[in-house]
Amino acid sequence: MGRIGYVLSRVRRMDYAAMARTARELSEKTGKPAWFLMADMAQCAARYGAGYVDYKIAQMYRLNAAQRATQITRGVSNAIVRRMNDRAYWHYFDDKSQFNTLFADQVRRAWLNLKDADAASFRAFLVGKGPLICKPLDGSSGQGILKITPDQYAKPDALYASLRAAGIGIVEECVVQHEALAALCPTSVNTLRIATLLGDKKQGVVYAYLRIGNGKVMDNVDCGGMAAPVDLKTGVVCGVGANKAGEAFERHPMTGARIPGTAIPYWQEAVSMCLAASRVVPQVRFVAWDVAITPDGPVFIEGNSFPSHAIPQFAAHFPDGIGILPRFREFIDL
Fold first, then answer.
1. 226/190 same-domain check
2. Which of 32, 136, 253, 282 has the most CB atoms lying inside 10 A of its own CB?
3. Do 197 and 115 reside in the same domain of the chain?
């Protein structure tokens, strides 16, 4: 689908009620008329491939044309994925069981494919286990993830049936994160989102962010979490935590821990792990890796063959209005 086809497709599928709500919300924030913001959103959709969520998160209402052209909007992100990632190979990342099998050396924890396991296998898996994370096989954005604890293991057959009914496809041991990251928010495993790109001009890490939870089990920004940029050379968090609501935090609202200046343990090891993994399925050239840092080093949580473009859009991380697209242009022509 070309750019014109993409725009027409978006026009047909646009949630106009949500777009109007966003315009009213931004009108209260900026003082600009809602009708003006609606018209501006439509212009940004046509010219830059931006959805109304892009418009809000990147605060495109404050940007001029040159600045807007540097944002990684939904349309731009989709075009990059279509160009770099062969859909015939997405299953290695989209199916969590296949991912865990292919990258077993980097996952380094016990897990069970609940879709293939019977109740007896589940009972055996529970023996000696602590808390477990339960996920749909092909879920995203933290949706459908559950955490179960040993006090629920007393009736394993009933638990097995309830997890199957809830659409759970994979059960994994919980990752024990490094104390330096647990100090930011102890309720979630706070993971690195490291994006690798095997570009025609350059290959390597195009961006990295630390995702931080805010009271929930997940650190995902679609579940109320936040993200902060990481300096690729030093492995030190170099900006505030920001969320999809447009809030920015120098200190975590729960723990009071300062976010900028946090040094990521095992940073170089995490980068090396992602770079090596990026060549395992060379038909998928743009991958966002979710990496947990344990006391013993980095481990994979998952890899994303269709990376969310929300995190590298947050306006709080681009105070001069110049977005992340110039970094992508170092790797590929856009």
1. yes
2. 136
3. no
pLDDT at 300 over 60: yes
Whole domain around residue 33: which residue ranges? 3-69
Distances 315 to 55, 88, 162, 229, 327 between C-alpha atoms, Å: 10, 34, 41, 12, 16
117: left (phi over 0), alpha (psi -120 to 50) or beta: beta
Residues 203 and 253 in one domain: yes
Reduce the DSSP state of residue 128 to 3 states and report it.
coil
What are the tens digits of pLDDT across the range 208-246? 999 999 988 778 888 789 999 999 999 999 999 999 989
Q: The CATH number of the domain where 145 resides is what? A: 3.30.1490.20
Rounded CA separation 309/58 (Å): 11
Q: What is the mean pLDDT of the chain?
A: 93
Q: How far is CA 327 from CA 97, 115, 276, 332, in A?
A: 32, 40, 21, 9
Q: Are residues 322 and 271 in the same domain?
A: yes
Contacts of 151 (CB under 8 A, 6+ apart): none
135 sits in which H/E element: strand 132-135
Torsion of CA 250, 256, 261, 262, to 10 degrees: -130
Angle among Cα 271, 234, 209 to the nearest 5 degrees reads: 60
Contact 305, 49 (CB under 8 A): no
Position 23 scores a pLDDT of 95
Is residue 82 situated within a structural domain? no
Chosen domain end from 146, 173, 200 = 173
